[in-house]
Amino acid sequence: MKKTPRLFKNVLLIFIVITMTHCSPTDKQFAEGLVFPDPENFSTILDGKDVKLYTLTNKHGLRVDITNYGGRIVTLIVPDKEGVFDDIVTGYHSIDEYLASGEIYFGALIGRFGNRIARGKFSIDGKEYTLAINNPPNHLHGGPGGFHHVVWEGDQLDGQTLKLRYLSPDMEEGYPGNLDVTVQYTLNDDNELHIDYLATTDKKTVVNLTSHAFFNLGGEGNRTINDHRLKIFADHYTPVDETLIPTGAIEPVADTPFDFSGYTAIGERLGLDHPQLVYGRGYDHNFVLNKVPDVLGPRLAASVYDPATGRRMEVLTTEPGMQFYGGNFLTGEDTGKRGEPYGHRTSFCLETQHFPDSPNQPAFPSTLLRPGEKYESSTVYRFSVQD
What we know:
Elements: H1 6-21, E1 29-30, E2 44-46, E3 49-51, E4 53-57, E5 63-67, E6 72-79, E7 84-87, H2 95-100, E8 108-110, E9 116-117, E10 121-124, E11 127-130, E12 139-140, E13 153-158, E14 161-168, E15 179-187, E16 192-201, E17 205-206, E18 210-212, E19 229-232, E20 236-238, E21 251-252, E22 264-265, H3 275-280, E23 284-288, E24 299-305, E25 311-317, E26 321-325, E27 349-353, E28 368-369, E29 375-385
């Protein structure tokens, strides 16, 4: 048998080594039209602060891009049951698009107070504070200059961890106290995105922080999310009035359209004649998460999967509540990353939180933060696939 020349064998060995070394995300299978964001499209100065894009990756190829403008999750790329990677969060590929968007909360951190406060007023020790009415007749998500609209100080600790910090000055958007906030994003090798919140204040104030990521497990902007199957670990919810302020009641989900105790298609009961669905134009409600004895860290709040792609997302949290929003107010007027319109119910939100209007609802878990105390909260988004 003729021997292979030594030079050819050496060249062949080098080729094999190079090929193995470069088995990277470029060798993975990506969904049609998927484009990674260009950091240059986020490089600017707002309010005298540098805006940047940060990228986190793990060993399995998952990727999260986050901008320090509003702490927004710009992309979140995960595989489906066939190993095809796609972006599952609604948003844009440039800072200019975020600034011009009709939906101002895409992917953003929310504060000082997530969700609504009735009539934009609350009291602490008998002193009344007045907030902006930006969701008439109520205050929503910290006001027009809330945390979604500020530039955070970013510090990427490593390839899987980003720390953001913001010092909210006393009376910003009407809230008392200098609030020092740190939010850390960690994408670990268990395919989990952790969001850990920490805040301290020098005056009594109210705090309720969350992330307003919009998801579509079929791929962002791909199609309706009404066929996603959702399970929420909550036996009760807080019904609202016609302005979406809780009535103060805590009612069972059983025998209502809000019973997601088993996996249920999101759109299955939207056509039912129920006043709560009328008020929210669908789902835009807080769920009272079940307590789990002896569990100190994050506990399961929800699990949702897309039957078509097999992508599954579980939400775990230390918070007592979670807002399920079904994308009812998306109009199609905003154009997404692939040039597609973000239409009615093409994404959903699972916002971990304390209950809406808690400062005015003594029976709800307190959102009061005092000097010397720490506000601490953790939420985990865990990703997997099923057949």
